[in-house]
Amino acid sequence: MKQSTDRNDGKLWEGNIVFQYFDANLRLSQKIKTVANCFIYGQVIRGHVLLNYEGHQVTVQEGGLICFPPLIPPKVISTSKDYICTCLIVNTDFAYANPSSRYLFHNAMFVKMHPEDPVIDLDRQEMQQTLETLHAINYHIQHPHPYNYDALQSLLSLFLIDMMGILNKRMGNDMFNHKQYKIYLGFSDLMSKHFQEQHEINFYADALKISPRYLSMIVKQITHETVTSLINRKLMYRACWLLRSTDHSISEISDQLHFSDQASFSKFFKRMYGKSPLQYRKKM
Predict the structure, then answer these.
(1) Per-residue confidence (pLDDT) for residue 202, from 0 to 100
(2) Cα torsion angle, 225, 227, 233, 238, sign
(3) What residue spans define the domains of the chain?
(4) N or C: which end of the chain has fewer CB within 10 A?
(5) Which CATH superfamily groups domain 179-283?
(6) What is the Cα–Cα distance from 100 to 110, expressed in whole angstroms?
(7) What is the spatial distance between Cα 92 and Cα 278, in angstroms, rounded to a whole number?
(8) How far apart are CA 113 and CA 108, in angstroms?
């Protein structure tokens, strides 16, 4: 398949979306200041890359598409010399601009969210299909017009719908219509909004008008993880980002994440990361 050699990319459109190529010498874009608050889609079109994703080493080969939800940015360990990857970074405000796009982002992100197996392997036709849409997105970023917002929202929807179609072929045609999955989407949406102040399952179960036990069962079936582990991971990544990217005191971060006191936060952080918040900050 012919690869584009156009490197007229990396332009940020109104703080919302950026498309960029990466190779062995160019890695994560800094054009969106808080990558932690963005969805990231990477598609390897040549070579391979080794990533650290939530403590797991993941190799993405040519044709591999990988999706990173907000608060879980990847770390590149190494790449092949011929490595080329396209990367689409979308701010959560733009992603969640309307109920339709919110639904699509959650659907297209869900299936490959597990850190041990986050890669979607595309065949040649699927690679071409997704690349054409990504290049169309890049064109509108590079050449904006008065209706660019709607154009980019439409192209993003097309990209995500195509992803859903690809995933359906892999995992069954009814996966996105299942009642339990819709409940999971509701939980995921609530968790994204409230994880900083609501750490207990009862809040989410009450909001969804189901029992905590039923919510636990659904989340376990879909993600192979517990509700608590998902909330704790979001808290951990937010804590790491605050320690790394702000000058807030540990006490202030503890308050922001709604821990009862600094000691409780420090105990949680050390249990999750193996080091104290202060040790983590000094290492940065």
Answers:
(1) 97
(2) positive
(3) 12-171, 179-283
(4) C
(5) Homeodomain-like (1.10.10.60)
(6) 16
(7) 29
(8) 10
